[in-house]
Amino acid sequence: MILTTTPSVEGRQILEYKGIIFGEVISGVDVLRDFTAGLSNFFGGRSGAYEEELTNARETALRELEQRAQERGANAVVGVDVDYEVLGSNNGMLMVTASGTAVLIG
Question: What is the CATH number of the domain that holds 10?
């Protein structure tokens, strides 16, 4: 399965459009805890725990996107876009969405 942010796959022809598809992940994270514990990281480092949560959520959303494309009979997804949002009254939930157009390429 080819996933690409471009509107086409170079050297391949889109034979059929299968529709817009999404992969979504909502996971609980303690943003306030990570922010407080990572203040020193803010001034010169990186927050490994938060980066790991983002990576896991993004990879899961992309796997879900791929699965939904396969269910529609597609062999590629073009125009892939990944978005991140923080949800909840205390910003304790991370939402990652991946979207794109499922296509059959030849």
Answer: 3.30.110.70
* Tens digits of residue pLDDT in 3-42: 999 999 999 999 999 999 999 999 876 655 555 445 545 5
Question: Which H, E and C letters describe the chain, residue by residue?
Answer: CEECCCCCCCCCCEEEEEEEEEEEEEEECCHHHHHHHCHHHHCCCCCHHHHHHHHHHHHHHHHHHHHHHHHCCCCEEEEEEEEEEEECCCCCEEEEEEEEEEEEEC
Question: What pTM value is reported for the model?
Answer: 0.80
Task: Decide if 3 contacts 66 (C-beta within 8 A).
Answer: yes
52-80 residue pLDDT tens = 788 899 999 999 999 999 999 999 999 99
* Whole-number Å distance between alpha carbons of 42 and 33: 13
Cα–Cα distances (Å) from 96 to 2, 11, 33, 69, 85, in that order, read 20, 31, 20, 18, 6
Q: Please give the residue range of the domain that contains residue 86.
A: 2-105
